[in-house]
Amino acid sequence: MVSNEERMQKALDSLKETFSMIRTGRASAAIFDKVRVDYYGQKSPLNQVATISIPEARSIVIQPFDKSLISEIEKAIQSADLGLNPSNDGKVIRISIPPLTADRRKELVKQAKADAENYRTQVRNIRRDGNEELKKEQKAGDITEDGLKGETDKLQKLTDKYIIEIQKVYDAKEKEILEG
């Protein structure tokens, strides 16, 4: 059985992955993590069919391993709905990251805040499930009343730790978005 701590860690890792997909006005290879390219009938991750480099803060260069894939990569980026306009010169694809407007930054912060709250709720739900499991164990006579109290306190401390971690990750992302 997966422990409560492992489940909470997975929630935190998932939040970090979600935040990596939020574009902040800076170039980042992570925004292409979910882009899949049609490679001989197979949907392959972009980073497995091309090299992604960041020569400057606001530009990305994608160099396909196979030059015949250039139009497929371009189509995949456009269909991924990232709000980016790739252009190619036959050898590489260049993408310029437009600066974010103040309104767009506020929208992104609001989105990040909602995401963070969803993950906090997930962590609290894990705590609730853990507490219910502990109560069942006590009813079955597997742990004592004092044991239940101790385990419940441990679970609460674990929950508090992960809620704080989620807040730290959110604060860092908010700062990144607002600085752009």
Provide a descriptive summary of the structure in words.
- By secondary structure, this protein is an alpha+beta fold.
- The protein has five helices and six strands.
- It has a four-stranded antiparallel sheet with strand order 3-4-6-5. Strands 1-2 form a two-stranded antiparallel sheet.
- A hairpin with a 2-residue loop joins β3 and β4.
- α1 runs parallel beside α5 and α4 runs antiparallel to α5.
SSE blueprint and pairings:
Blueprint: H1 4-20, E1 36-39, E2 42-45, H2 46-49, E3 50-56, E4 59-64, H3 70-79, E5 86-88, E6 93-96, H4 102-139, H5 145-179
Antiparallel strand pairs: 1-2, 3-4, 4-6, 5-6
Helix pairs in contact: 1-4, 1-5, 4-5
Task: Give a nutshell description of this structure.
The chain is 58% helix and 16% strand. The protein is an alpha+beta fold and 180 residues long.
The 3D shape can be described as elongated
Gap between N and C termini = 42 Å
Oligomer: single chain
β content, as a range? 15-25%
How many runs of DSSP E, i.e. beta strands?
6
Structural class by SSE content? alpha+beta
Helix-strand sequence: HEEHEEHEEHH
Strand order of the biggest β-sheet:
3-4-6-5
Count every helix, treating DSSP H or I runs of 4 or more residues as helices: 5
- Helical proportion? 55-70%
Uncertain residue segments: none
Instruction: Summarize model confidence as the mean pLDDT.
Output: 87
Characterize the largest beta sheet: strand count, sense, and whether it forms a barrel.
4 strands, antiparallel
